[in-house]
Amino acid sequence: xxxxxxxxxxxxxxxxxxxxxxxxxxxxxxxxxxxxxxxxxxxxxxxxxxxxxxxxxxxxxxxxxxxxxxxxxxxxxxxxxxxxxxxxxxxxxxxxxxxxxxxxxxxxxxxxxxxxxxxxxxxxxxxxxxxxxxxxxxxxxxxxxxxxxxxxxxxxxxxxxxxxxxxxxxxxxxxxxxxxxxxxxxxxxxxxxxxxxxxxxxxxxxxxxxxxxxxxxxxxxxxxxxxxxxxxxxxxxxxxxxxxxxxxxxxxxxxxxxxxxxxxxxxxxxxxxxxxxxxxxxxxxxxxxxxxxxxxxxxxxxxxxxxxxxxxxxxxxxxxxxxxxxxxxxxxxxxxxxxxxxxxxxxxxxxxxxxxxxxxxxxxxxxxxxxxxxxxxxxxxx
Length: 382
Ligand SMILES: Cc1cc2nc3c(=O)[nH]c(=O)nc-3n(C[C@H](O)[C@H](O)[C@H](O)COP(=O)(O)OP(=O)(O)OC[C@H]3O[C@@H](n4cnc5c(N)ncnc54)[C@H](O)[C@@H]3O)c2cc1C
Prior knowledge:
eight-stranded mixed sheet; globular
């Protein structure tokens, strides 16, 4: 497709964040939005993710964003006119020490204060929520019933289709190779398909966003981190309806609606990397955890392994807002939870850009917080 050479807004990156931002800008009346990707829709982390959605966070900012995102997800099929595959089986968080349980309960108190109805559940209740669970070594559990997961492909596709209906142009196989800056403001982008002049440019390029930011002379301290994940053949429904997750146990496990179990864990050492290869070591370790937690699935076959990139920041919270280059914005650094936050951050960034009051004040997510030592530390990450 021939690219236009002028737009009001160019968005770099067609993952969930770029797609939601494009849709929300168009919905708020911005006429000429272009979203471009060097690959295609969901070709980055969004297409590799576990797609969990939870409001059980440890920082006030993430709690506020996540519960607003759940409100959006719950009516997203109607809003976008296509199904997004939302499934609300809850998140069951598992603590393996008194200290960890206390941390979960402190986070729960914050969540409850912000209107999130998470609660402590007993081992017996945990087994009712997750019938195949063997967690006799656990010390405690918290649960939030409105948590769950959606389909990352369906969700992003639905956003882009709705955006296109509102006039947004989507260019795939179009790599941003330069950002045009004149004086103190952005003027557009150079791409492998030509130049596009634009008043506003938004960097939604995920784990590569620090590379894209640098094209405008802006430094952001985020990095890619490889995370592996796998999926099994389908097993009987109802084995693990919630997302089962533990920070110290280092796992997340959930059953998809068609019966397959999808599960992942964090890598040793948390190295900075753009590597997305899979390893036998992960497959072996993850399989052991899976069978220990859900003994009835012993013998199930793993049908696919893959890896994707977390777009990490030093405090585990996203970077959203305008940069020192006027009209050049970031919406990046989602640190492993951008799928669930994309719907709300796309909305509030679009509100801010169009001069409306954002539903949630996100000014503290400015990238200058790292220099100023005003971090928004989020520990509740697997
Ligand atoms: C294994 C795994 C499990 C995860 N589980 C969850 C989960 O359960 N819940 C959750 O909320 N999140 C999860 N995440 C995190 C989530 O995937 C990301 O936070 C989210 O997808 C980020 O979306 P994005 O749109 O910012 O980035 P991406 O989806 O990576 O999109 C960025 C796009 O930018 C494009 N791009 C890059 N450079 C350029 C360029 N120069 N020019 C043009 N295009 C460019 C890329 O091709 C890519 O398509 C997980 C991630 C992984 C890897």
